[in-house]
Amino acid sequence: MASLDMTEILLETYRLADQIIESEEVSRYLQLKKQLREDAQVQALIREFQKKKERFEECQRFGHYHPDYHAAKEEAEALQRRMRKHPLIAAYLEAEAVLDQLLHQVSRTIAHSVSESIKVPANDPLDGNTSVKRCGFTF
């Protein structure tokens, strides 16, 4: 069996990374991310959500016993639902999910080519292993 040339493996890794960077998925994701940063309405929604989230986190420190806990939670969740309906945010979240899936497939392909028993983490909110962080806040 030939020994592994780590230099060649790293070069192939960089080539793969370059291919991913040049992909349509990354291009769309970066385009939408730029649009999010430049859209005043979206930025106002994000700032408003961050304030609601901070308020809820403060209430959450005391749990259900805090007098404003339920109101703060509902306000944050309502704004989060409203944000997800915004066309630009919805498009960004979809592009992010597509890119995340691509990266997960690449990771899984590499890992499983070594052994099927290697676990590959994913940003699957249904999985329960990780939270998903988007637009600077966690969904």
From TrEMBL:
PANTHER family: REGULATORY PROTEIN YLBF, REGULATORY PROTEIN YLBF-RELATED. This is Regulator. Pfam families: Com_YlbF. InterPro entries: Bact_com_dev_regulator, Com_YlbF, YheA/YmcA-like_dom_sf. It comes from Polycladomyces abyssicola.
